Amino acid sequence: MTLFSKILIANRGEIAVRIAEACAALGIGSVAVYSDADRTALHARVCDEAYHIGPSPAAESYLRMDKLLDVARKSGCEAVHPGYGFLAENGGFAQAVIDAGMAWIGPSPQAIALMGSKIESKRLAVANGVPIVPGYFGDDQALDRLKDEADSIGYPVLIKASAGGGGKGMRVVDTASDFEGALNGAKRESLAAFGDDSVMLEKYLARPRHIEVQVIGDRHGKVLHLGERECSIQRRHQKVAEESPSPAISEETREGLTGAALKLARAAGYENAGTVEFIYQDGEYYFLEMNTRLQVEHPVTEEALGLDIVQMQIMIAAGERLELEQEEVRYVGHALEVRLYAEDPEKGFLPSIGRLSRLRLPRGLRNVRVDAGVERGDAVSPFYDPMIAKIITSGGTRGESIRAMQEALGYTDVAGVRTNLEFLRWLVAHPDFAKGDFSTRFIEESYEPSAQATIPCEAILAGAFTLMESDRSQSTGSVWHARPWRQAREDMPISLRVDGRRYDVRLSVLAGQGGQWRARVSEGMVELYEDTVIVSGLQARSDGGETEGTRTLHFQLAGSDGQQNISRSLDPASNMWSVEVGGRRYWIEQAPALSTETLTTALHLKDEDNLESPMPGKVLKVMVAAGDEVKDGQPLVIVEAMKMEFTVKAPHDGKVEKVRYTVGDQVAVGDVLVELEKREG
Ligand code: ADP
Ligand code: ADP
Ligand code: MG
After folding, report:
1. How far is the CA of 543 from the centre of ligand 3 (A)?
2. Is the pLDDT of residue 338 over 60?
């Protein structure tokens, strides 16, 4: 077998690491590329060679075909693996790689062009008798035509970018009156992301499931399916948990689905790995699109079938024949994957940026696989997808892989950014998930973030006291003593993160009330707890027999009955404090203090807190100027970060006093975008 001597991995993060592992297993050299933000990234370290290709924004690095080809040529690569995302579905890049005399580890540029188009592939599906969702897929993009088509499809209607992917340019429209606004949003998002604003319309199915079929073909005309994956657990139409096989379909449906996928792949002359996506409802399936690349969730297929898809991809690109026969593709068990994201479930799953000051992934546990591209200390930057890791568990039955996942997630621990970990724990403990009874709307219908992720007042206060104390002991050089806060200044501001969430606490001694403190706690611009919290009887002491660094904090909150004992400890490895409240551990970190400007803004904004950027990102559109009169709810500014855009709307009628940013500006969470004058009446 003559495979390649060296492969360029034109990607980053976990998938680049995953491909490097496959190269190593096959005895092939691996070449990484990295941007400024990724100088010390894991993927660059695990490859045999690594080359810098430019600044952090993907458009200036990972999307630069010229630079990638340059590195490939100079380092003597014989093939290019694009991973997923970035240039993976770019037929032009595939062609350029081939023209440069190297092998493209993926389907042919012709197959990418045909099946990568949501519309072309639907035409092929219809021609081959594969059902599609009723809709409009025509070239006429005039507003009136689209409106008419939406009317005849019947609401709710889904607008999709024809060139779309990753949920971009997708809008659900419930009524005709919302159509035009949604259309404009979809077009703008699509133009920005894909340089093309044409759309298609589909009937929006109420409670479907997402089921997809993995296919793989060699260069000699053999095409196989590798079973199905169920990916119905989604937020914002993007997958968060996937499994194989699907708990929802009968053997007969499975045959129908896999047969339809094979028919399409063969009709397209497909080679290498690809995924045929369907939605499934009430026993019927409809072709959605084909992804002409390796998929994020490929590990569940690998674990459920006992195969290595990335190694197969490489061998196929080298011209090897698929030795596997269709009858040999058999489930050896069940596998489940969850995507651990740096995002905030309480804020509509918006990305959360920061340094992973703590990261414990469930590596080495039985039946658990972890695919990650980051390590403790690495940053989740605003430039790329905020996925931290994929955790994959397997078992002889679905129940076994769910139990293994519960254990794996119980062990997982992240600090420094907000994550969806609590959400994932909730998911794998949910009885409907266990029963396999869910649709793509499961999260939206069942998940109540506030009930899950609330951080108790005790944890925030104990964290604040702990930080204040350790700060004082550092500056005075004194060691821990029984009443460390006696001479504290009045109105101490402390900014901290509890499990990655930022709080600002102001503590003041209540004069003449021996040992009582008043605490005000705010999160972002919002003050928590309507009444100020009175803390009394505050003491800390080292209880005998505990490990070094463990102390118990005793205190009482006004209104609460009895003394509370909260134990806290210092983790020697990360030098981070944690407090334990109600049997749960919370990680504490000092956060940078708020600037005076932000504080002033916070006061000024009080209950009009939605003029700020909800996430770090880039200003995409400014729709108002100083002096404009705006109405309550009117869109003012659109901010974009990673895979989504967010519209900041006027919280009330009024006149715009100042617009602080222009298109293209980078903004941080909480940056005030527009100043609005409050109008009387
Ligand atoms: P689908 O395309 O059907 O939603 P995936 O969930 O595999 O399937 O991926 C969605 C898209 O999001 C991919 O095309 C890829 O561009 C992007 N994406 C997802 N996760 C990442 C990541 N960690 N890094 C880069 N891109 C990603
Ligand atoms: P993307 O390119 O973002 O992957 P898809 O067409 O694959 O776009 O759709 C992504 C998700 O959106 C699906 O998995 C499904 O949850 C939802 N979706 C897509 N089309 C429909 C539809 N017609 N009705 C209901 N949900 C849909
Ligand atoms: Mg899709």
Report:
1. 56
2. yes
